[in-house]
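Morning run. Coffee first, then this:
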Amino acid sequence: MAQIRALRRMASLLTTPLAPEDFLALVNPLASTRQLRGVVTKVVRETADSTTIHFHPGRGWNAHAAGQWARIGVEIDGVRQWRSYSLSAAAGHDPAITVTAIGFVSTALARDTKVGDILFLNVPQGDFVLPAHPRPLLMLTAGSGLTPVMSMIRTLVPRRPDADVVLIHSARTAADALFRDELLELADQFPGLTVRHWYTREEGGRRLDLTDPTDLETLCPDWRSRAAYACGPSDFLDAATELWEHSGDDGQAQLTIERFAPVLLPGTGGAGGLVTFEKSDKEVEAGGDVPLLDAGEECGVVMPSGCRMGICRSCLTPLVAGKVRDLRTGEVHGDEGELIQTCINAAAGPVHLDI
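And here it is:
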């Protein structure tokens, strides 16, 4: 061990001001001790707006469980941008993310990613995962909310002959439905999977209604007896949560949800204020319902971010002065030097951030 450390010190002297890893990365871009990376191995266009990006991660990646997500970094115009994406590949396989071209970073990933590109990675996270013991399952998804559930289906259905899964997926049209052909093929091949698509345009613009059990009774009559997983837009998940809360004494315990956005308390927005980003020498007037993360990005500040919903804490930024309002609870707080989650806090008067 002492000899290895001595060799590393000698190598560092020879490569200063760069590190030995910087030269090694020229040969193998995944060989970095500073930042976990992955190389893109395949790019698949799923719909007109959605793309699946397969990648091979470097050493240090933890194998993902079906349904988990990971923070993904990409260089855009020389700036490293981070976002969180659900992993759509089956557990036990190299990971993949399925990205819809909405927003600056997701659009760049969906439109511009090529085989051989390098992604920056953090390890998989999240507890939206399959139950520990076999049981009948109901998967309720809408739009890109299918992504983590697809990982679950790809993991469970081909490997478990006793699998009993009903998937109800809502999309605008068949052309917009992610993984449509693959799901129909899996349902033909494996009797344990039932797939029900709900196309809103074919239903006269009517969305899948979860405010009462009528639609569910038609699509999955035994829905109350299944362990349910739901992922999709906030209003979709809010309706599902309320329905399960009123479905029986144990209904809520049978519903697991995954949100792509934080649950904000209605009416938490206040007057807002002038937000000053001191190191970036920029400032912007921000409303009391605008997350500080969004305010910073709007005026061109490179803001640290991850899940963008108050979970991963990657957006923590020191507060220099002022008060902020937690958009989930309405609580106004802030002390000098306090680390603020910018994705779920807004200005409550003038605010100065150390970034």
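The helical segments are 2-15, 20-27, 104-112, 146-156, 180-189, 214-219, 234-245, 292-298. Good start to the day.
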